[in-house]
Amino acid sequence: xxxxxxxxxxxxxxxxxxxxxxxxxxxxxxxxxxxxxxxxxxxxxxxxxxxxxxxxxxxxxxxxxxxxxxxxxxxxxxxxxxxxxxxxxxxxxxxxxxxxxxxxxxxxxxxxxxxxxxxxxxxxxxxxxxxxxxxxxxxxxxxxxxxxxxxxxxxxxxxxxxxxxxxxxxxxxxxxxxxxxxxxxxxxxxxxxxxxxxxxxxxxxxxxxxxxxxxxxxxxxxxxxxxxxxxxxxxxxxxxxxxxxxxxxxxxxxxxxxxxxxxxxxxxxxxxxxxxxxxxxxxxxxxxxxxxxxxxxxxxxxxxxxxxxxxxxxxxxxxxxxxxxxxxxxxxxxxxxxxxxxxxxxxxxxxxxxxxxxxxxxxxxxxxxxxxxxxxxxxxxxxxxxxxxxxxxxxxxxxxxxxxxxxxxxxxxxxxxxxxxxxxxxxxxxxxxxxxxxxxxxxxxxxxxxxxxxxxxxxxxxxxxxxxxxxxxxxxxxxxxxxxxxxxxxxxxxxxxxxxxxxxx
Length: 505
Ligand code: UDP
Hints:
The chain is an alpha/beta fold. The chain is 48% helix and 13% strand. The protein contains 20 helices and 15 strands. Strand 2, helix 3 and strand 3 form a beta-alpha-beta unit. The longest helix has 28 residues. The chain binds uridine-5'-diphosphate. Uridine-5'-diphosphate binds next to helix 2, helix 15 and helix 16.
């Protein structure tokens, strides 16, 4: 029997979290770190100076709530050759700078390893884009949990492409093929799948290969989905792909329960435009379920021609809207800045729309009763937040794993109306796939109008929303999953402590 002291010590888990330096990965992994702290784990989040402002206010609030959580700041590697503070990949980050931030992130290895030696955590949770952190954990003999962005479904679909290569057996980019081996019969075209599957020596292929290898070598993965949302794909990932996994979402509503958390999540001064945001008063003046919310996440910067089509499509649809528009750089303006200013004045005058420049308090907006639907690029975080808010979606995938997520929303779950985008693009190179205003207006109309099909979609998403809320309550699937993981980590720590005692004895 273990001594009481050892058992007590094993109860106190110390963890280090290392989020990636892009808003899209940073925001959810910080949320995940916070749910561990809520369950009594001592949490340190490691990041660089330029990323702290994105989440520090929520860490301070958690700490005041009595959670054992803090941020540890390490230097952004100067070898990457970037000006001070340019350390976060966001929508407006130029591609060459984003490569350097990527490089800087991989150069964090030395500092991170030293930190592990100094702090001696019991486990680490690191983003998928730090494959080297498997070895760093191995050096200390502790588990590395990999944070995998995206849905289980997307990872299963990509695994199907890798195993069976169905896209190599069709004659053209537009001919559809089945994704073999998955729980549902899902069809895609070659034009919808990521470039690394099609272009020889694609630069991202090596990155993803390293990610997959490190996933296999990790103790297991955490994802922020929930069982009722895509349980069959969670099982497939576990059994067919063979990775141990814990599904702990939706994390955003789990940790961001009060108004300040919701309003400030991911919001830093770089994204602010200095304009007074009076969206709440505006939404309060609108009827229930009457407003469509349009947002393309944290990393998408749409070309001028697409912004013009969206503006016109929104007006043509006749529905009220909130549209989140990224800051337009002077170099990318093409006259669209003036067009959008006039558009904003016009829709303000008619009271039909509200433009939010830069960063929107998305969680707070989605829960407003006036919001009746969402136009989304199918980023996993927005998808889950929208499902949680019981809202159907217009699906508008552009890059990354978004086309797979669209399949899940439209073909599997029946809670999305496709806008009709057909072509996967490299990040922020969307000029060749401009969705036309009439298609945008039509999809929004299908989303916001009445009718039996629409009512059915709303019933389905409401059932999922109820399930999402149950999942994070004591006894719910995600709650249990997190508890199981923590218990397993405690028992690993206990075994390690006992081995140490035996060696000393
Ligand atoms: N987000 C936000 N305000 C914005 C844009 C994004 O709060 O103006 C948040 C959103 O709530 C979500 C995340 O940023 O949690 C974006 O993640 P998603 O997976 O939807 O898209 P990505 O940025 O990864 O493409």
